[in-house]
């Protein structure tokens, strides 16, 4: 039985208990949410991984992407990024490798990572075919689904698969968009569909894909191949057309007893984010929603961890359950270790801000703890309780004040100390 089927049968599994305890939620309530498909539990495929819950009523989770490219395929660096992401508080990690020995890289990541690991199987499918001397269009059904099963056997916790880019939508996106198709997996499929004149194989053979997902009980993340890559493309016909297809695929996955969540838009102006979140939840039966950002403006290369954090906070407030980080290197290059850390921290801030707004249990407690410490000029508690204690302490210690209980912002004119004197 899959985790979904256990919940439907009334069983409170060990994974469900672990999530309920972490989230501070009643296990029976969580069981109902899992049974209904409004919460997905993942991370139990590997004994050393933390189990997490994604969805309604739970804290907003954060994912970090790492992985090689054809130009940079150093496993040691990717493992360093993994450590940085987990140390910074990422709840999950995706391996997006397309360079080097992809299988060896993924196995090393799975062995080392202590949080759930996701992949995008089409990357490996395309790389293997092109390395054999073929082209993207030469990929067969066996190439597409075979990689999915191989990765499932290794213990991958969730997989992004772009099932919603159906053939009839391929023509809509070709000439109607500023940025075209920016999803790498989506663009692979677009080229395959156009060159072969056939239906998306992940859609055509979706029933077989569900059989594999059921057998190995990994979570299916329905990828948004047609996510907007420019704010002018946001909420357009191709994006919404794909979402409607994904809504049907969510229903089919649930009937098959497969855990499923849905990926959402990338570049969305801030005023469109609430309607995008509401529409997805409506169309997809309240399935957990996983968003990249969203980035609220296109003008900030080098600072896109900020544009994404702005959008992520608004998205989480209005129902997004899982935020994929964006680093300062987005649109520019493969991220460095420092970029990974900055991306995770900025996205965690966005997730927490969203949790406060939507009333997630215990979210405000963290803020109250730091606020009380500041009011008491208890620097040790304030620094240790911050989202990035090492950076907070580094900045505090870099500019010693004239008094041990003050910082150099106001010095002797400290408003906190002045307030305490007035109270006394």
Structure, described:
- With about 425 residues, the protein is an alpha/beta fold.
- Helices cover about 50% and strands about 10% of the residues.
- The chain has helices spanning about 5-10, 15-25, 25-35, 75-85, 100-110, 120-130, 140-155, 165-175, 185-195, 200-205, 205-215, 235-255, 275-285, 305-315, 335-355, 365-375, 380-385, 390-395, 415-424; strands at about 40, 50-55, 60-65, 90-95, 115-120, 160, 220, 260-265, 290, 320-325.
- The strands form two sheets. The chain has an eight-stranded parallel barrel with strand order 3-4-5-6-7-8-9-10, surrounded by six helices. Strands 1-2 form a two-stranded antiparallel sheet.
- Helix 13 links the parallel strand 8 and strand 9 (about 290).
- Helix 4 packs parallel to helix 15 and helix 6 crosses helix 7 (about 140-155).
Characteristic key phrases:
single chain, 424 residues, alpha/beta, TIM Barrel, 8-stranded parallel β-barrel, two-stranded antiparallel ribbon, 19 helices
Largest sheet: 8 strands, parallel, barrel
Q: Please tell me the overall pLDDT.
A: 96
Described by the principal axes of the CA atoms, the overall outline is globular
Low-confidence stretches: none
Under the CATH scheme, the architecture of the largest domain is Alpha-Beta Barrel
Gyration radius, rounded: 22 Å
Strand-pairing-aware structural class: alpha/beta
Assembly form of the protein: single chain
The helix-strand sequence is HHHEEEHEHEHHEHHHHEHEHEHEHHHHH
Number of helical regions: 19
Which class of the largest domain in CATH terms? Alpha Beta
Strand content: 5-15%
The spatial strand order of the largest sheet comes to: 3-4-5-6-7-8-9-10
* CATH homology-level superfamily of the largest domain: Radical SAM ThiC family, central domain
Distance between the termini: 64 Å
The number of domains: 2
- Number of E strands: 10
């Amino acid at each position: 039985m899959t985790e979904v089927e256990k919940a439907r049968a009334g069983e409170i599994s060990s994974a469900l208990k672990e999530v309920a305890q972490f989230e501070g939620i009643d296990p029976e309530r969580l069981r109902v949410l899992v049974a209904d498909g409004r919460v997905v539990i993942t991370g139990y495929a590997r004994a050393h991984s933390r189990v997490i819950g994604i969805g309604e009523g739970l804290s907003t989770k954060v994912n970090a992407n790492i992985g090689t490219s054809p130009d940079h395929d150093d496993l040691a660096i990717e493992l360093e990024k993994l450590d940085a992401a987990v140390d910074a508080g990422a709840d999950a990690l995706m391996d997006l490798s397309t360079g080097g020995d992809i299988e060896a890289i993924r196995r090393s990541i799975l062995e080392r990572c202590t949080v759930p690991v996701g992949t995008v199987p089409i990357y490996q499918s395309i790389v293997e075919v092109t390395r054999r001397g073929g082209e993207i269009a030469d990929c067969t059904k066996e190439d597409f689904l075979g990689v999915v099963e191989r990765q499932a056997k290794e213990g991958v916790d969730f997989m992004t698969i772009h099932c919603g880019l159906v053939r009839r939508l391929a023509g809509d996106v070709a000439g109607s968009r500023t940025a075209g198709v920016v999803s790498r997996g989506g663009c692979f499929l677009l080229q395959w569909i156009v060159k072969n004149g056939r239906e998306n194989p992940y859609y055509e053979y979706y029933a077989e894909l569900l059989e594999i997902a059921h057998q190995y009980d990994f979570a299916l993340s329905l990828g948004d191949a047609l996510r907007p890559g420019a704010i002018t493309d946001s909420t357009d016909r191709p994006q919404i057309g794909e979402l409607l297809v994904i809504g049907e695929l969510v229903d089919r996955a649930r009937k098959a007893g497969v855990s499923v969540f849905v990926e959402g838009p990338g570049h969305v102006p801030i005023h469109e984010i609430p309607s995008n979140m509401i529409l997805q939840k409506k169309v997809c039966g309240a399935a957990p929603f996983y968003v990249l950002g969203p980035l609220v403006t296109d003008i900030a290369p080098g600072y896109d961890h900020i544009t994404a954090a702005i959008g992520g906070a608004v998205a989480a407030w209005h129902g997004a359950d899982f935020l994929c980080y964006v680093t300062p290197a987005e649109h520019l290059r493969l991220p460095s270790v420092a970029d990974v850390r900055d991306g995770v921290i900025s996205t965690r801030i966005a997730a927490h801000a969203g949790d406060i707004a939507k009333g997630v249990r215990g979210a405000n407690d963290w803020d109250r703890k730091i606020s009380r410490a500041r009011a008491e000029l208890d620097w040790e508690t304030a620094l240790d309780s911050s989202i990035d204690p090492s950076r907070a302490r580094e900045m505090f210690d870099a500019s010693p004040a004239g008094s041990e209980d003050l910082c150099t912002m106001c010095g002797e004119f400290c408003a906190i100390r002045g307030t305490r004197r007035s109270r006394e």
